User: Fold this.
Amino acid sequence: MAGRTVTRAHLSEAVYQEVGLSRSESADLVEVVLKEIAGRLVTGETVKVSSFGSFYVRWKGRRIGRNPKTGEEVPILPRRVLVFRPSHVLKNRVGRTLSPGDGSG
Amino acid sequence: MVKSELIARLAELNPHLYQRDVARIVDTIFDEISTALARGDRVELRGFGTFSVKQRQPRTARNPRTGQAVFVEEKHIPFFKIGKDLRRRLNDSNGAGR
Assistant:
């Protein structure tokens, strides 16, 4: 498996190449897209991007955890967690190119 | 919110852009992330989160109806881990974590 890391800079470059805005405006737009999605998630809204996946927020109740080093019991407070559910299109794309002889995801 | 609503919202925030271009921007971003994952790369977006590919080991599963053993090949699945900033914001805003 390759091991490169893609960052905001790569996304802005792709937008720059594809849409033909200035580099700085492309970078701003990538930022605004992420900001808008994050803002919705913070309010608890689900964000669905077709053929990519959906992000939704789930509530987790209080439970008792344990410090694995000391064995001490520690309460884990109720919290909200983000779940990303990849769409079938994305699962298939990732599964097909990386798994040997498997196209079904 | 679905993708078309995201595009409409961005077009509203950027009145100097055609909605058509805004749609291309959004598509380009998600396409770029998908393509990176299909290559096996990670996509790290500080403050938002990181997309990566996780490998699932081959295993022997069972058909729940018949109980018959079925071999499932190794597979790769997309995975998202939330970034620190966003995780903190999720729990700051609603009194969770108290």
In short: DSSP finds three helices and six strands in chain A. The first strand of chain A starts at residue 5 and ends at 6.
